Amino acid sequence: MVKAKKSLGQHFLIDQDVVHQIIDGICELKIENIVEVGPGEGVLTDLLLPVYPNMMMVELDRESIAHLRANHPSLGEKLVEADVLKWSLPEGNWTIVGNFPYNISSQIIFKMIENREQVNALVGMFQKEVAERIVAPSGSKTYGILSVLTQAFYNAEYLFTVSENAFRPPPKVKSGVIRLVKKENIELNCDVPFFFSLVKQAFNQRRKMMRNSIKAYLTDENIIHVEKYLTMRPEQLDFEDFVMLARHLKP
Asked: Is the CB of residue 226 less than 8 Å from the CB of residue 248?
């Protein structure tokens, strides 16, 4: 048994019903290469390895690594000791899976988006509030930066909620498992860095109308193309609306 470390945000999944639900959510996808983030005690690893023998695991906790190697002596280089946020994906297309540490879960999503050419899908557990934010539709209170940037490139699906009692030690919040599958056409046909910047800028002033957050980019020439958005608030715009804004407002 591995000791859960608060500094690493570790809460080990112990409910086998939940484990099998997550495995089902992964195996429904037609995938070959898997990276498991933070395998911990290996409750997912134990069931995934027979199906995906070439899967990789990225783990920062040395005690967890020793535990995994003791249970799976043949892992070799497939088990990497690294901070996943600083680790580079090997060549190829990958599906990211895991019971993600809450303290870096949003950063894992941003890393996935940054590496979207290589990441075909993600199935993972997040704090319920974060999971709901990622899949939230436009117009909802939880809709925000994570929602727009994720949904620009991935189809997002909330699979199920997980009780605090499914973990050791129990977290103070419920968890949610989501599945993200890359869209067939992820070319936005706009300046992508500007699109990212525009989304973040808008939601940093989410209570204000869009005319305030984009006023620095408005000109006599482009205002006619974006006029309908000026009295809207950012949560009313879906990712396609932000793409349209990026096309017309890029200086």
From this structure: yes
